[in-house]
Design brief:
The protein is an alpha/beta fold. It has two domains: 4-97, no CATH class; 101-168, no CATH class. Helices cover 28% and strands 17% of the residues. The chain is built from five helices and seven strands, in the order βββαβαβαβαβα. The strands form two sheets. Strands 1, 2, 3, 4 and 5 form a five-stranded mixed sheet that branches.
């Protein structure tokens, strides 16, 4: 299937958006995701400015996945759509991600977003906040933050439960 085009009548701020080009993208770490762009030129422009990044790892080395052109066979013509006939202007990949791996990647991202939605980010104060809650100096609440490997080990030795999570940029906000 070729790049999809999504249509929407009303834009977010009252304007009208006629169509969006939906591209299948992949970062250098083989994470696959969709990108929605007003046009091929818009995609190339954003890619060139480093504005297109993997929602899982933040990598800005993005390839447009190789897709077959979409044909309108009902018209009786076997001509490709004009956009499909243009030469690609960015690097392309024909890597096909294992469906089980893609599903696992999606489940992991959902689980991490759930953690973020239900915890308070205390940043670099994580070890101090966890200790204070453990010793009854602060009310218990779900927190997350940063700790060095040494700080995490010390917390575990004190009987404080700690779980290491990947620091993924996509878990902090909704993808667009």
């Amino acid at each position: 299937m070729g790049p999809a085009v999504a249509q929407r009548r009303n834009g977010l701020f009252g304007g009208t958006i006629d169509a969006m080009k939906v591209l299948n993208l992949q970062c250098a770490h083989q994470h696959e995701f969709e990108g929605w762009f007003a046009s091929e030129d818009d995609f190339v422009s954003q890619l060139g400015r480093g504005m297109v990044a993997c929602p899982l790892c933040g990598d800005v080395h993005i390839d447009k996945k190789l897709t077959a052109p979409r044909l309108n066979l009902r018209s009786g013509r076997n001509e490709p759509e004009p956009a499909a006939a243009q030469a690609p202007s960015v690097a392309m990949s024909n890597h096909v991600m294992d469906p089980e791996l893609a599903a696992l990647q999606a489940r992991m991202l959902r689980a991490l977003r759930e953690v973020v939605a239900n915890t308070e980010d205390v940043g670099e104060r994580f070890a101090d906040e966890a200790r204070a809650m453990h010793h009854g100096e602060l009310d218990h609440r779900n927190i997350r933050g940063q700790a060095s490997p040494q700080e995490a080990l010390a917390l575990m030795e004190e009987g404080i439960e700690v779980i290491a999570l990947p620091a993924l940029p996509a878990i902090k906000e909704t993808l667009q």
